[in-house]
């Protein structure tokens, strides 16, 4: 007899531990399959520090540091199982080719054997590490335990009170410039009296002094010229530290240098030779050979090396970084040589190798948008990296696409709340886009501004674009845009982007009878689609620490402000224009203009632990406020939610506003579920699986709302339940969870996220939690959603 076991019972508190136990036993048995006789699998290890009498409270840090010295490491494990080793054993073959060999070597990992672990050598390394931390009297022992051919090793380090620094002296004669400069840095020393002796800190102190000297002109100085003498015979576990200069220090290392001639090879190629006649002098620089490639007045904005100035490493690094940021150049090399006629002076040579000036690229691709439109597309892009002989980047891109909407109704299912199947045909869309952008690697302004001293090139961007959209069943739309803005990074973690001129004109063309009927019934939607100018400014502030890859805690925050129409409305009021009304807004060039303020913030926190594991939390908030000449936000500025980068258990634009239940007549159009307020939260745990396969478990929550109720043509509330209410918004959140699989091959990521809805806001209160009614299918109510995308969601 075959008996079916219910899914809920299978995962009961009794069955699940039993299954895990069976898996662990099976994994343990298979782990030793390829372990030779007389040997054992190096399964695990532990490092303990006995710190009796140690007042420094560094036990945890010491255990972590000593654990890092263990080599080799045991096979990677997850919950006690070793998937890579299991794959290696399951597909083990002595053949050096074939599918089994490929799987064994590509996804598997050979067993780490106990015979490969030299416990005596490792104990010695641990003892040396402890001595470097001030524990000169330490012992390290190891104990090996073998059970079923799986070995476990425990190292035990015994320490007491470390030696501490009693006195620090810089025993330097200040008769030489370098010695005076070193003594001047003593107040910033990393060494402090009373601190435990630490070799790593002493090494860092030498590096700090060298960096300080490099800013004082000592080009040839090196940390190796400094030596610490330590006297540990003073008693009571104390020592005196003396810093001195080595006797054999090079003569040129103890004198500061200034810059004499600066040569700039503006169009350098390997093997190039130049003669004296090739050189022109520009503002004290020797510019070689001429200005036919990049004009000197533009290039010199990125050069911070000046004749007769003291050599400073920061100026050299800043010059290299800024020149590398110019689109016109592929390689930058800065070298220094002693001047042949003057003592203690350097000549600087800047070699600039041009990048490919012009490029043309064509791409045929499958377009997949957040609103569930998919289809083929083609993009042709042209780039000129030195358009006006000032390293300006001219980018022209033309694209076209044919798209069909997929995903059915804008809910978690393809059925209405009454259970009827939505029979609306899929939308078809054609789109043609053209965008031209000219980027200047400098601030272009009518006002004379000081050259920004940052390692990142400040940029000025001018853009012109056109977009034609044809939603076959509904409407056609033209959109024109023009922008003028600036981008600069004062530090590595902060980026400012301001667009003082942001112009856009949206024109609705040839609306179908069906779409005209929808607009007539919804004045709110009609005003969103009307022809209008958007004339305003944008500002974005981005803070990110993600470039510091080794940090446990990383942060990202992007804050954006978008305002429109304020200046126009102020001018209109000042000139005595009539006050705007709902049906008679103020106009410019015969068309109304939008007036609003829109605020958006995207905050992310990354907690990195283990080798590749990560927990990511995200909070997105936004609000758009129409006023003055507008009663609602333009269609393109309203918020939507749902989709592969938002709420992954719900299809794009399928949620909200609020508890609004979209009618079947417009359920497939996706233009009716927009709002003025957005709140979204995501939590995701990312972990490695095997090779370039990564896994994820996630939970998403969010919704959009309207700032106020809007009336339809009959005077009834349009989008019932869409208004934001502070007392109810938590119960109106759409909540979903799921699991993900990512193929991460470094230069791009293919992502599959399986979303499962948990709470649906458009259902009546008391019925919104739907997990009990979950069906493991991709159709019908409360079904799963499979998201396929490129890149991580956040």
Count up the helices.
Answer: 13
Which geometry do the CA atoms define? Answer: globular
Number of extended strands:
31
Rounded radius of gyration (Å):
34 Å
Descriptive notes:
This protein is an alpha+beta fold. Helix content is 16%, strand content 37%. The protein contains 13 helices and 31 strands. The strands form six sheets. The chain has a 16-stranded antiparallel β-sheet with strand order 12-13-14-15-16-17-18-19-20-23-24-25-26-29-30-31. The protein has a five-stranded mixed β-sheet with strand order 8-9-7-11-10, with helices on one face. A hairpin with a 2-residue loop joins strand 21 and strand 22. Helix 11 packs across helix 12. The protein starts with 6 loop residues before the first helix and ends with a strand. The N terminus is likely disordered.
């Amino acid at each position: 007899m075959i008996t079916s076991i219910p899914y809920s019972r299978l995962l009961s508190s009794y069955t699940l531990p039993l299954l895990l136990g069976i898996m662990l036993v099976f994994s343990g048995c298979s782990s030793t399959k390829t372990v030779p006789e007389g040997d054992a699998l190096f399964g695990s290890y532990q490092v303990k520090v006995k710190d009796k009498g140690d007042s420094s409270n560094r036990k945890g840090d010491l255990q972590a540091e000593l654990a890092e010295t263990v080599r080799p490491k045991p096979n990677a494990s997850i919950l006690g199982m070793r998937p890579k080793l299991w794959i290696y054993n399951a597909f083990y073959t002595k053949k050096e080719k074939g599918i089994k060999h490929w799987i064994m070597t590509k996804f598997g990992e050979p067993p780490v054997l106990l015979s490969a672990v030299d416990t005596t050598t490792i104990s010695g390394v641990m003892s040396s590490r402890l001595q470097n931390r001030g524990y000169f009297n330490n012992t390290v022992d190891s104990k090996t335990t073998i059970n079923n051919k799986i070995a476990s090793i425990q190292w035990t380090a015994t320490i007491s009170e470390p030696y501490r620094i009693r006195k620090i002296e810089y025993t330097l004669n200040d008769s030489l410039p370098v010695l005076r400069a070193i003594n001047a840095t003593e107040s910033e020393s990393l060494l402090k009296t009373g601190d435990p002796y630490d070799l790593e800190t002493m090494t860092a102190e030498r590096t700090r002094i060298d960096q300080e000297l490099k800013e004082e002109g000592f080009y040839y100085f090196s940390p190796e010229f400094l030596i610490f003498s330590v006297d540990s015979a003073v008693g009571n576990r104390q020592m005196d530290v003396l810093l001195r200069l080595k006797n054999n220090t090079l003569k040129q290392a103890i004198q500061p240098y200034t810059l004499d001639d600066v040569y700039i090879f503006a169009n350098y190629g390997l093997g190039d030779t130049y003669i004296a006649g090739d050189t022109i002098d520009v503002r004290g620089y020797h510019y070689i050979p001429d200005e036919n490639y990049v004009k000197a007045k533009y290039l010199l904005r990125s050069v911070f090396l000046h004749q007769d100035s003291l050599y400073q490493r920061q100026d050299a690094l800043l010059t290299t970084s800024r020149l590398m940021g110019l689109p016109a150049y592929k390689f930058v090399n800065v070298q220094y040589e002693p001047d042949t006629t003057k003592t203690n002076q350097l000549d600087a040579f800047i070699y600039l190798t041009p990048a490919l000036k012009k490029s043309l690229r064509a791409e045929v691709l499958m377009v997949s948008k957040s609103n569930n439109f998919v289809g083929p597309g083609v993009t042709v892009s042209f780039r000129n990296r030195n358009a006006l002989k000032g390293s300006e980047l001219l980018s022209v891109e033309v694209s076209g696409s044919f798209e069909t909407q997929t995903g059915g109704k804008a809910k978690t299912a393809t059925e209405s709340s009454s259970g009827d199947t939505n029979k609306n045909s899929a939308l078809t869309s054609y789109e043609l886009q053209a965008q031209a952008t000219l980027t200047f690697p400098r601030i272009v302004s009518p006002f004379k501004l000081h050259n920004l001293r940052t390692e990142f090139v400040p940029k000025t961007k001018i853009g012109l674009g056109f977009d034609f959209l044809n939603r076959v069943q509904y409407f056609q739309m033209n959109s024109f845009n023009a922008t003028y803005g600036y981008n600069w990074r004062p530090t590595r973690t902060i980026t400012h982007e301001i667009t003082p001129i942001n112009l856009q004109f949206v024109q609705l063309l040839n609306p179908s009878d069906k779409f005209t009927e929808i607009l007539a019934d919804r004045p709110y939607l009609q005003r969103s689609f009307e022809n209008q100018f958007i004339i305003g400014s944008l500002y974005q502030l981005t803070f990110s620490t993600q470039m510091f890859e080794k940090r446990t805690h990383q942060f990202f925050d992007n804050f954006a402000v978008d305002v429109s129409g304020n200046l126009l409305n102020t001018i209109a009021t000042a000139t005595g224009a009539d006050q705007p009304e709902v049906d008679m807004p103020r106009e410019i060039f015969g068309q109304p203009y939008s007036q609003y303020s829109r605020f958006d913030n995207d905050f992310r926190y990354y907690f990195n632990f283990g080798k590749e594991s990560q927990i990511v939390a995200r909070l997105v908030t936004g609000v758009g406020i129409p006023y003055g000449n507008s009663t609602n936000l333009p269609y393109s500025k309203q918020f939507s939610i749902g989709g592969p980068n938002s709420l992954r258990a719900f299809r794009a634009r399928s949620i909200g506003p609020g508890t609004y239940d979209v009618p079947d007549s417009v359920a497939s159009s996706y233009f009716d579920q927009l709002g003025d307020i957005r709140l979204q939260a995501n939590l995701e745990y990312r972990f490695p699986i095997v090779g370039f396969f990564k896994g994820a478990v996630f939970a998403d929550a969010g919704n959009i709302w309207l700032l106020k109720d809007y009336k339809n043509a009959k005077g009834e509330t349009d989008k019932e339940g869409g208004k934001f209410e502070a007392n109810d918004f938590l119960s109106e959140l759409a909540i979903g969870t799921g699991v993900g699989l990512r193929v991460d091959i470094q230069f791009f990521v293919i992502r599959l996220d399986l979303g499962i809805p948990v709470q649906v806001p458009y259902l009546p209160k008391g019925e919104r939690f739907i997990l009990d009614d979950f069906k493991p299918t991709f159709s019908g109510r409360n079904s799963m959603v499979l998201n396929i995308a490129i890149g991580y969601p956040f």
